[in-house]
Amino acid sequence: MKVWIKYLIGIALGFAAFFILPLGENVLSTLSEFAVHFGRYALFPLVFFGTALAVFRLRTNRTLLKTSIWTFAMIFLFTFVLTSIGIVSALLIKLPRIPITGERMIEQQPIDIKSLVLQLVPFSAFDSLREGIYILPIFVFAAFFGAGCSSEKEGVRVVVAFVESAARIMHNIAAFFAEWISVGLIAVTCWWLLCARGGLSSPVFSKMFLLLLVDFLIFAGVLCPLIIRLVCKDPRPFHVLYASVAPVLAAFFSADSNFSLLVNMRHGRESLGIRDEVNSFSFPLCSAFSRGGASLVVSVCFVSIVRSYVDLGIRAEDVFWLFTTAAAVSFSLCALPQGGASVALTIICTMYGRGFADGFLLLRPALPFLCSFAAIFDATSAIYATYIVAVKTKAIDHNAIKKYI
Fold first, then answer.
1. Buried-most residue among 99, 158, 327, 400 (CB within 10 A)?
2. Distance between CA 79 and CA 85 in Å, rounded?
3. What is the rounded distance in angstroms from the CA atom of residue 345 to the CA atom of residue 352?
4. Which long-range contacts (CB under 8 A, 24 or more apart) does 343-351 make?
5. Cα gap 244→286, rounded to integer Å
6. Using one digit for the tens of pLDDT, what is the confidence trace for 115-172?
């Protein structure tokens, strides 16, 4: 049975359990958190050994620079595209005004850029292995490890053989966890429904949900295949969309980029045929930095907030400020696999000021599905970006669609 079908069954059972079983909030929260932890469990060892082997091969083949350039080019491209979609759709489609509340902002800790940079090089490289959610420190350590192996001509064959074996083992373990995520999605879906039902039941937020859904369909079903067609000259651009179904399902209900990364990496390797040197290198970077989904969601939300406070149109300079700021803030969300869109919206409202610092509170009931949409945009852009990198660096062995997992 295909993985995406298993995920759909798990989600359907989650919907049924939510309406049939008398599960308490604490029980659902615990089960959902356990399922998300289960989905992340094998990710970091996979990233460490996979990245170390990828950098070793890329340096040996002298394609590290080319692969890095294409990866970051795709990260910037998809961030630009997603931010543009968010702003254009929010300006063209006038959503209902959100009722103004008298709720005041609670003191919130801002993103500490200095801390994020310092965590990339902790006091000991082994400290990066203990990191629970921030994927970049372990990626950096693994990259140095792989580069060190490639710089030695003699005496590293045993180490390289060990890393290759460990990477294969971790791929097998990750495949096991990716299969059983379908069971965890039952609890994750129940918890998502409990958190999101308040926003979905509101006519104001339900229309925002529909707008974001249309944005996603346009992005994933029209723009991304068009980019594949133009950049890769691929006559079958929709096969990437098919491979992204399972990662998108996992991303939407978990709203967690680390949770969906495990599924993305498996589908990139086994369905699309992306070779390990790109699959284990580009996917973690895209998961960390390609957060245009948060930028898109924040753009839609901020325009709605401004229109809820004032009847005046949004000035051109405000649109330019929103585009540049939302895109820039999205790059700082690398340490937040969950809730990045919520934090980004808080930052944008605070930076804009002019009486809008508390504006993000208007959207609090809608935050569960807003973060979900941000996650599926990010998961989709990651798989499309990595596929393009693999094609442009000739690191792919195309599979027939019937062989997709």
1. 327
2. 10
3. 11
4. 343/111, 344/294, 344/295, 344/298, 345/297, 345/298, 345/301, 345/302, 345/370, 346/108, 347/110, 347/111, 348/298, 348/302, 348/322, 349/302, 349/305, 350/110, 351/325
5. 15
6. 655 555 565 555 555 656 778 888 888 888 888 887 776 667 888 888 889 989 988 8
